[in-house]
Structure formats: C-alpha cells, structure tokens
Design brief:
It is found in: Cell membrane; Cytoplasm; Mitochondrion matrix; Nucleus, Nucleolus. The protein has one domain: Mitochondrial glycoprotein (Mitochondrial Matrix Protein, Chain A). Helix content is about 30%, strand content about 25%. The chain has helices at about 1-20, 155-165, 170-200, and strands at about 35, 40-45, 50-55, 90-95, 100-110, 125-135, 145-150.
Length: about 200
C-alpha cells in the first residue's frame, strides 16, 4: 500500500510542478518587503513617519469549491481544473513613529466577490474590524475596543478605505496579494506532498 501511495505522490508532484505558475514568488508592487515564515507571510512598507505591515496566513485560505468534482479522475487536462486561488484574510497594521499605538485593520475578501472583473467600482476586499493595539506587543488585548464594521456609518467606512489606499493597500494591492498568496500556497502544497512522500517511503 505504501509503495502505491509513494508512486501516486510522485505523479502528483510532477503534475503540480507542471501547472505551477511561478517558480519564484511574485512581487507586490509599491515597494513592499516580503518576509515568509512557513505559512505566514508579512509585507512591510515604510512611508514618511509610518510603518505599514500586512500579515496573512495561507492556511485555510482557499474557499471551498462549489461542486464536488473529482479533478483527478483519469487526470483530465489541466484546463478543466478550476484555477485554485487563495484569498486569505489579512491584517493591516499602521504604526506611527511617534505614538505608542498601532491601528489594526482586519480585512478579508468577501466570498461572493471573486468574479469582480468588469465592475471597477466595488472594492475586492472589505474591512471587518478596526482596533488600537499597543505597539510592539505580540498578544493583542481583548479588552481593547474593537470596532466591527457591520454597523458602521458608511462615510466613516469610506474614509477608512481611503486611509488604507493612501498607504498602498488598495484593489491593485489586494489583487497582487491573491496572486502572491496563491503562489505561496501552491509552493507549500508541493513541499507538503514531497515531505509526505519521504515520510511514506521511510521504512
């Protein structure tokens, strides 16, 4: 059984490498520096007096597919497989040099917005929550007030979106983030298959 499993994994790795779009991770325009730690990625950008950090994790970032088709039945040509895209939630932190506080905006891609070609007006990501957190502390406090945007005045929400756009977090950025996250997810998936293969073959 293990031999067959290892053989299956070898074929699977070959197939996945064949459809891998990016041999190296795509860049995000606008001078963002990328740091990757396993499945977590962080993009950092410094502008006058501020540091903007965007953090996301590729785990659980692929929306469930609508239909339960089995893409690997008899290995249909790749064209028939829907493009798997990774749309992770991401957290934007804006740190001003002269304050001890960080403004934290929790953003996500709404599930129904995936086919957003053509409608230029709508934003492809939304802000879910906003809070202040003490700068430099890794554990955020639940006691800090968190503003949920569900019941928010639209004018205030629009200002928050503009605030992000002025710092380079706009639709273009959100599109490039999907591209980056998808490539990173695929890279990690192939690595996982390779690790699994070594594990299965290990006697």
């Amino acid at each position: 059984g293990d031999k067959a499993f290892a053989q299956f994994l070898s074929d699977e790795i070959k197939e996945e490498k064949k459809i891998q779009k990016h041999k190296s991770l795509p860049k995000v325009s606008g001078g963002w520096e990328l740091e990757v730690h396993g499945t977590e990625a962080r993009l950092v950008r410094k502008i006058a007096g501020e540091k903007i950090t965007v953090t996301f994790n590729i785990n659980n970032s692929i929306p469930p597919s609508d239909d339960d088709e089995e893409p690997h039945e008899g290995q249909k040509p790749d064209e028939q497989e829907p493009d798997i895209t990774s749309t992770p939630n991401f957290v934007v932190e804006v740190i001003k040099d002269d304050t001890k506080q960080t403004l934290v905006l929790d953003c996500h891609y709404p599930e129904d917005e995936v086919g957003h070609e053509g409608e230029e007006e709508s934003d492809i990501f939304t802000i879910r929550e906003v809070s202040f957190q003490p700068t430099g502390e890794s554990d955020w406090k639940d006691t800090n007030y968190t503003l949920n945007t569900d019941s928010l005045d639209w004018a205030l929400y629009d200002h928050l979106m503009d605030f992000l756009a002025d710092r380079g977090v706009d639709n273009t950025f959100a599109d490039e983030l999907i591209e980056l996250s998808t490539a990173l997810e695929h890279q990690e998936y192939i690595k996982f298959l390779e690790d699994l293969k070594s594990f299965v073959k290990c006697q």
